[in-house]
Specification:
Blueprint: E1 8-10, E2 17-19, E3 24-25, E4 31-32
Antiparallel strand pairs: 1-2, 3-4
Bound molecules: zinc ion.
Protein name: Ferredoxin
Length: 44
């Protein structure tokens, strides 16, 4: 049996952590914060 390692996303804006499977990406492929509901890229 193998352990399944779940990648974790940490928002650079507010520090929220969430399983990476929760994370959506915007059209520029920046991760979208599940708290803000907006991208966390340099232009956000
Ligand atoms: Zn955030």
């Amino acid at each position: 049996m193998a352990l399944v390692e779940t990648a974790t996303f940490e928002c650079g804006g507010c520090g929220t952590c969430a399983p990476s499977t929760w994370i959506d990406y915007d059209r520029l492929l920046y991760p979208v914060c599940p708290e803000y509901g907006r991208a966390t890229g340099p232009l956000a």
